[in-house]
């Protein structure tokens, strides 16, 4: 069991109300727009739901990692794909918190905490996904600025972002830059992309056409630190993916159990068929084992003991299992499971990408395999 306290339960209750009443009812409209509106980010900021782990010095709550767990779980349980808050709070903000100067943190983090500015991270390129060393985007020093040239793709919060932590080649090495996008000459983004799943989530292409970024926006102050910085953060990002995966499989099981208790066929409830009970028993057992492994990894991460290999194990195994369990749960719904008005269909669509982002599962297995 995770050591939740009163503060965690308070933010859980707030998050539950927010996602259920202010986000979930609008997912269809946001799917049409392919993004959540700016006002929902500001509302999340008002409620203290953005970047709760950031230090009080910069306007945060100074909370622990369990605040991130609570927020992710409640968003998944509510069926709210957007806004993409965990990336903003648990991926982008920590880059600034860990590697930014005091001036950078003082200027940017309060705006992210309030929801005034949305954060994104730009690594993936059309020709470089899991292979970060294949990156082609460049950043060339020119006086008191760097000139960034290139393209990024599949960037979550890409069309919404006011600040983008951007990876680019400085010579042969990779560096990270804080790019503030408002009225920035040479910077543009495409329309949010049409996707198989996660329709309301803002994912876009970014274009850098000789974009001048002040030299003091280099993250880490020294060139060539980007690859090390990204590798250091990847274990946590894969842990976050595991949290989503386990919450999603638990939600799918809850929906399947409720449906099979209501739906009848051949004169009895679906759940009263032995095959149904066996399938649900298998899913519940697997999800419970996944929950135990996840919580073990969370506790190790909090203690600073979660290794790259174990984070990779968690990521590939839980996302594979997520896809399997959601698919089997959809089967109980028959033809209704194929209809988009049923939440299980969206879970099925939304689950597929989990085996791709954060490092494809094949890469995760390679990481584990190298330790054997």
From TrEMBL:
PROSITE patterns: ACYL_COA_DH_1 (PS00072). Pathway: Siderophore biosynthesis; mycobactin biosynthesis. One of its GO terms (molecular function) is acyl-CoA dehydrogenase activity. InterPro entries: Acyl-CoA_dehydrogenase, Acyl-CoA_DH_CS, Acyl-CoA_Oxase/DH_mid-dom, Acyl-CoA_Oxase/DH_mid-dom_sf, AcylCo_DH-like_C, AcylCo_DH/oxidase_C, AcylCoA_DH/ox_N, AcylCoA_DH/ox_N_sf. Pfam families: Acyl-CoA_dh_1 (PF00441), Acyl-CoA_dh_M (PF02770), Acyl-CoA_dh_N (PF02771). One of its GO terms (cellular component) is cytoplasm. Its cofactor is FAD. This is Acyl-[acyl-carrier-protein] dehydrogenase MbtN. It comes from Parasphingopyxis marina. The lineage of its organism: Bacteria, Pseudomonadati, Pseudomonadota, Alphaproteobacteria, Sphingomonadales.
């Amino acid at each position: 069991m995770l050591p939740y306290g009163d503060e965690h339960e308070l933010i859980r209750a707030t998050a539950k109300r927010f996602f259920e009443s202010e986000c979930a009812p609008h997912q269809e409209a946001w799917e049409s727009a392919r993004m959540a509106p700016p006002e929902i980010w500001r509302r999340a900021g008002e409620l203290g739901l953005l970047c709760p782990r950031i230090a009080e010095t910069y306007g945060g709550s100074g909370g622990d990692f369990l605040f991130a767990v609570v927020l992710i779980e409640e968003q998944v349980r509510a069926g709210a794909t957007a806004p993409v808050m965990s990336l903003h709070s648990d991926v982008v903000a920590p880059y600034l918190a860990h590697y930014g100067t005091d001036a950078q943190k003082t200027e940017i983090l309060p705006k992210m905490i309030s929801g005034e500015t949305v954060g994104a991270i730009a690594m993936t390129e059309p020709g470089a996904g899991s292979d970060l060393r294949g990156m082609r985007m460049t950043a060339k020093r020119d006086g008191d600025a760097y000139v960034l040239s290139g393209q990024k793709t599949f960037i979550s919060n890409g069309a919404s972002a006011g600040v983008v932590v951007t990876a680019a080649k400085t010579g042969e090495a990779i560096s990270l830059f804080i790019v503030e996008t408002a009225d920035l000459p040479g910077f543009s983004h495409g329309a949010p992309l049409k996707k198989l799943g996660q329709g309301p989530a803002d994912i876009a292409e970014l274009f850098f056409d000789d974009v001048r970024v002040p030299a003091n926006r280099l993250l880490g102050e020294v060139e060539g630190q980007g690859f090390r910085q990204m590798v250091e953060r990847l274990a946590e990002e894969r842990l976050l993916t595991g949290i989503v995966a386990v919450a999603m499989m638990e939600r799918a099981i809850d929906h399947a159990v409720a449906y099979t208790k209501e739906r009848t066929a051949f004169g009895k409830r679906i759940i009263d068929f032995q095959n149904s009970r066996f399938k649900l028993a298998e899913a519940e057992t697997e999800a419970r084992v996944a929950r135990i492994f996840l919580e073990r990894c969370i506790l190790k991460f909090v203690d600073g003991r979660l290794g790259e290999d174990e984070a990779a194990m968690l990521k590939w195994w839980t996302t594979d299992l997520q896809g399997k369990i959601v698919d089997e749960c959809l089967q109980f719904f028959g033809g209704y499971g194929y209809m988009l008005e049923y939440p299980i269909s969206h879970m099925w669509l939304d689950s597929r990408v989990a085996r791709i982002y954060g490092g494809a599962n094949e890469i995760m297995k390679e990481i584990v395999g190298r330790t054997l």
